[in-house]
């Protein structure tokens, strides 16, 4: 009987209140859309397990943080030990995109090596779009983030985006372990991260 290897990673959900962070987490973990819910205070906790190989799985511990500004100092307490972050904005509200950039900068100040997934939520109402796909994609490319547009309501790209993050976190973890055991004098140019991210968005599933 083969033992299953489980790799566990803590990630945080950040973004303005009302962008759909909790709805995304519920869609991902329960395959449900919760139309009306009470705003998160502090944080909520979710888990999702992805299987990539017959004997390997990746468990994401997802901390859904409060979006309101008054909870900002409390929210940042949950950044500790996080290796990944999902920053969500609402494609129908330009201000939430600006705030997403601000929160990402705060996160990077605290955890500079965090792997980031940027999600533009609510593509089910893209006729009301205020943030162009190309604008967000360019921002993600410049900063070497994963980027998806999704809909918690329809489920579009929800599992795909989180699975891409899980895969990248695991690859970074495995790469880090290998680098701990190699001769650092070996001279080889590293692959550009953005090229790798482009492949993830299109080919891992």
TrEMBL record:
* Residue ranges that the Swiss-Prot or TrEMBL entry lists as coiled coil: none
Q: Which UniProt keywords apply?
A: Nucleotide-binding
Any single GO molecular-function term of the entry would be:
GTP binding
Q: Which NCBIfam families does this one have?
A: small_GTP
PANTHER family from the UniProt entry: PTHR47978
Asked if the keyword Nucleotide-binding belongs to this entry, the reply reads yes
Under what name is this protein listed? Answer: Rab5 family gtpase
Q: Which organism is it from?
A: Anaeramoeba ignava (Anaerobic marine amoeba)
UniProt key word Nucleotide-binding: yes
Entry-linked InterPro entries: P-loop_NTPase, Sigma_54_int_dom_ATP-bd_1, Small_GTP-bd, Small_GTPase
């Amino acid at each position: 009987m083969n033992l299953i290897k489980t790799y566990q990673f803590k990630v945080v959900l950040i973004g303005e209140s009302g962008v759909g962070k909790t709805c995304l987490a519920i869609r991902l973990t329960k395959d449900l859309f919760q139309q009306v819910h009470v705003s998160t205070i502090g944080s909520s906790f979710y888990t999702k397990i992805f299987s990539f190989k017959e004997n390997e799985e990746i468990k994401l511990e997802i901390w859904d943080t409060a979006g309101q500004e008054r909870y900002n100092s409390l929210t940042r307490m949950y950044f500790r030990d996080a290796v990944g972050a999902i920053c969500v904005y609402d494609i129908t509200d330009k201000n939430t995109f600006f705030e997403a950039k601000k929160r990402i900068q705060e996160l990077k100040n605290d955890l500079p090596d965090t792997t980031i997934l940027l999600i533009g939520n609510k593509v089910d109402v893209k006729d009301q779009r205020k943030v162009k796909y190309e604008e967000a994609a360019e921002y993600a490319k410049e900063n070497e983030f994963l980027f998806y547009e999704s809909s918690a309501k329809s489920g579009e790209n929800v599992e795909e985006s989180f699975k891409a993050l899980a895969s990248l976190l695991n690859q970074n973890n495995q790469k880090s372990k290998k680098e701990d055991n190699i001769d650092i004098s070996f001279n080889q140019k590293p692959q550009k991260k953005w090229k790798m991210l482009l492949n993830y968005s299109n080919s891992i599933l």
